[in-house]
Amino acid sequence: MLKNPIILFTIWQALGISILIMALILFLIELFDGNVKNWIDGFLLTPELLIIAGVILLLSLIGYAIVAIMYGWKYMVLFEMDENGIVHNQMQKEFKKPEAMSWLTIMAGVVAGNPTTMGAGILSATKTASSSSFKNVKKLSPKRDCI
User: In this structure, is the dihedral angle defined by the CA atoms of residues 139, 132, 91 and 3, taken in order, positive or negative?
Assistant: First the structure.
């Protein structure tokens, strides 16, 4: 997970979109208050936006470290390809620890009375595979040195 931190970069992409949405909301608030010029002058240096971005960055790094430690710094997936697409199967050995964490998430949702947390826990506890369809793929380039 250290050699190929694609999971961390994917998390940062999603969180970056969240930060941009928050910046848009802050801009709209300033727009309706009539303070747009001041906000535009310090767009990337607004204390609120920097604090939010820093907190999100810190939480994502902590979360990534926790997940990486749980997986022993390796994330192994079995890929099965046919003419329709690729199925990404999580190895059974790799699924045990996250499954236990998922059940803890479900219980925390029950105790808090939060159905969203319970649902997220149920989904992560039961999903061991995902798939990618070739429906929209126009070209496939094999890497011979990886075979």
Answer: positive
Q: For residue range 8-24, what is the model confidence (pLDDT) as tens digits?
A: 888 888 888 887 887 78
Listed residue (123, 137, 146, 131) closest to 88, CA to CA: 131
DSSP 91: P
Q: pLDDT of 55-73, one tens digit each?
A: 888 888 888 888 788 777 8
Report domain extents, the chain.
1-75, 76-135
Query: How far apart, in whole angstroms, are the C-alpha atoms of residue 41 and residue 98?
Result: 45
Predicted structure pTM score = 0.52
Spatial distance between the Cα atoms of 71 and 97, rounded to a whole number of angstroms: 8
